[in-house]
Design brief:
- With 160 residues, the chain is mainly alpha-helical.
- It has one domain (9-159).
- Helices cover 66% and strands 0% of the residues.
- The protein is globular.
- The termini are far apart.
- Bound molecules: zinc ion.
- The site of zinc ion (ZN) has 5 residues, from α6.
Length: 160
């Protein structure tokens, strides 16, 4: 599974399958959570978090209402469209990081960003940008993501 308490905090984020080709499980998980919500079924704790993340993004709701068209859809970088599944998966990673304050200090950085931007979603997008950046760097260097760099990036967002 791409995001479970079995991979707490940083590692959970690092091992997220959005960063490797086996993306189907992650996508299916989002679709299932949404379908259950629409059908009025009971959601698990993890599905509830996934649902909250989807609800934050009304622009993606039509996508989730049409799984047959979107489950396998490609979002090649050259098309210039942001991959919604990647975006939501990063959101999930951030929810997990915030819930256990991993890397340490992330919760405080988030609170400060929220105070600065005045909007929770904007603050989370600042986290998301930094996270995406250091994951990208880690992949290029074939190394683990650099937590210090992550917090440094957030500090920069606070100052600008
Ligand atoms: Zn978002």
């Amino acid at each position: 599974m791409f995001w479970t308490p079995a991979f707490p905090g940083w590692r959970g984020c690092y091992h997220a399958p959005v960063y490797n080709p086996s993306r189907d499980q992650a996508r299916q998980f989002f679709f299932d959570s949404w379908r259950k919500y629409r059908a009025g079924e009971t959601l698990s704790a993890l599905e509830t978090i996934a649902l909250q993340v989807i609800l934050l993004h009304p622009e993606y709701h039509p996508l989730f209402d049409a799984p047959e068209r979107n489950l396998d859809r490609d979002y090649a970088p050259e098309h210039g469209t942001l991959n919604p599944f990647l975006h939501l998966s990063l959101h999930l990673a951030i929810e997990e990081q915030l819930s256990i304050d991993q890397p340490p200090g992330i919760r405080m950085a988030f609170e400060q960003l929220r105070a600065k931007t005045g909007a929770e979603h904007d603050a989370k997008h600042a986290l998301l940008e930094c996270l995406a950046e250091i994951i990208w760097q880690a992949q290029r260097a074939n190394a683990a993501p650099d937590q210090a760099l992550y917090l440094e990036c957030l500090g920069q967002k606070l100052r600008t």
